[in-house]
Amino acid sequence: MSKAIERLYVIGAGASAAAPYRLPTLKTLTWQLARTFGRSNRRLFEHTVYECFGVKLRKGSNVDFEELLNRLDPSPFEYLTGLPIGGADAQAQKARRLALTGLRIFIRKRCLACAKREGSYDRLVASLNAHTAIVSFNWDVLLEMALRRAGQRFDYLPSTSATDATVLLKPHGSINWFALLDRELLSVDLNANVDVLGHDLSHYLLYLKNPIGRMDLGRSSPFVKSALSRLPAIVPPGATRLLSVGGAPRDGFVDGGHARASCAGPAQRVRCQETSSRRWLKI
Q1: Which residues, 6 or more positions from 84, have their beta carbon under 8 angstroms from its beta carbon?
Q2: Which ranges constitute the DSSP H helices of 80-227?
Q3: Is the pLDDT score of 264 beyond 70?
Q4: For a tag site, which of 144, 178, 183, 259 has the least CB within 10 Å?
Q5: What is the pLDDT of residue 272?
Q6: Do residues 236 and 145 lie in contact, with contact meaning Cβ atoms separated by under 8 Å?
Q7: How far, in Å, CA of 57 to CA of 86, rounded?
Q8: Do residues 64 and 134 lie in contact, with contact meaning Cβ atoms separated by under 8 Å?
């Protein structure tokens, strides 16, 4: 980075749980998320919770979402892969995918509901200057919405290309991040509602500039569309703390790019080209 950071704000779940946002904490998220599922999915989810905790999921049961995903984490059992004992299609893993799939839908809907409400995040944004940065451990995009309301630019990784932008680090990922799972013939239309994490396409992570907007790739190449994950790139709260990109990267280069971005490593810039009416970034 070309500018010195003199003040660092660290944001946790409490900031988003306060009025007027009132997003659930990890203690209440499991119950509220279950209520959004259809009957069959909710039955599967509630049964899995009972298998994990020995309690029936109901209002006030306070089943911690972090601990639930921790208990459903399949990585400690990778050595059993290929054995006829359920594997990736076991009920617990179906419930885990269901939880992570529903997570973005649920949080995005709650962020949409308070898209125009000003609150503590707006007061924080008003206090920022060129020498402040923010670390947020939240998946939600309430802070990004406050920055947009104030007309303030932000970068998810430190960069020398936009020194007037607020540095917003999200080590647990975000519901508006989406991973690319392949690296062949990528060409991203940056005039659409997407940009490249860290201004470096070799990280293979895109984000929605309007974080509660639709996925609009504009005139990006069809290879981008085919390589794009359908699930948000987040770090599920579990024992491994690994970035979940919503699919299997095609090769080690892509996997390494995801790892660099999730560790907030130094961005290596790639060439941006100006066309007559659109800005593109190619690799």
Answers
A1: none
A2: 91-113, 120-126, 142-149, 222-227
A3: no
A4: 259
A5: 31
A6: no
A7: 24
A8: no
- Long-range contact set of residues 68-73: C-beta below 8 Å, sequence gap at least 24: 68/30, 68/99, 69/96, 69/99, 69/100, 69/236, 69/237, 69/238, 70/237, 70/238, 70/239, 72/48, 72/96, 72/99, 72/238, 73/236, 73/238, 73/239, 73/240
Query: Cα 108 from chain centroid?
Result: 11
Model pLDDT for residues 230-254, shown as the tens digit of each residue? 889 988 876 677 888 888 898 989 9
User: Whole-prediction pTM value?
Assistant: 0.84
- Which residue's structure tokens are 């911690």? 64
Q: Which residues of 109-141 are buried (b: 16+ CB within 10 A; e: fewer)?
A: ebbeebeeeebbbbebbeebeeeebbbbbbbbb
Contact 233, 203 (CB under 8 A): no
Q: Within 13 A of 46's CA, how many CA atoms are on the CB side?
A: 17
Higher pLDDT, residue 149 or 84: 149
Token pair 């005039």 is found at 191
Nearest residue to 65 (alpha-carbon basis) of 234, 207, 263: 234
83 pLDDT above the threshold of 80? no
